[in-house]
Design a protein that fits this description.
The protein has 9 helices and 11 strands. By secondary structure, it is α+β, with helices and mostly antiparallel strands. Strand 8, helix 4 and strand 9 form a beta-alpha-beta unit.
Length: about 300
Amino acid sequence: MSTTSRHDRFGTNQTVLLLCPPGEPGYRRLALSVLRLEDGRVAEAVEVPMRFLLPHGFNKDGVEYREGRMKVATEQEWQAARKELLAAEQELAAHEQRVTKQRRELPWVPVEKHYTFATVDGPKSLPELFDGRSQLLIYHLMYGEDWKVACPGCTSVGDGLGCMVTHVNNRGVTLIAMSRAPLEKLVATKAQRGWTMPYVSGYGDDFLFDYGFAFRREEMFGIVRDEFDMGQLLREAPQWLQDYRDDVGAPDLQSAVSVSAGWSVFAMEDGAVYNTYRRYPPLVGPPYAPLLEFVPKP
């Protein structure tokens, strides 16, 4: 563990710039913290934003959420505040149970089209992806067909999926990741990251387009969903989107928005396959995000 203090970082300088990498969850702003030393004291600390990848971690007005200074209290005061919080947490847990019940009661939509996916074991149909189980859970990892690398945020999700596969499989659910990029790119990324979860490609198939996880160039400016207006996004071309294009090595902005992250769920009953659920951004985050909700600093 490093014992370097803030003063030690200055050395013989009066000003120091600290590079603050994007945080998780939410891919917060990459920033420079500008610290100025005056009379042996840190007189100023200014955070200069450089870029951000995705707006998760920002409030509804697009303003980055910042906590104030911490509160210091006695154990008795903490217990009183904790009791008040507990009531809110119990209310939230009850609400989440109601939402889960509502989600599981969604109607099932039959999959009537034939889809083919590229896997390391050769081409497979959608029913074959179930691997003998009755439910299929797909994480849609953003990796465009002409990108140089996968989405940095999505790769953090991929880092955690491997350890979940066995537990999910034991409950009758097959867990896989899927991207639009060709299989050879996926195989290289999987090896580089040390991933162990099944990772399949939807390249050359309509599946990702049909279920809203990929978008054709000729249709982009007319796409309006509950989550976003793609035409408006491309016309405004915000800085974060331009930065994201550079991060993944996409050739242009349309390529940068050609795929979407998310989750899709399929179930098999009497040999027939049904789509039961789909989730798109911004309701998508890394699996470890709930753990970070326990800590005081976002």
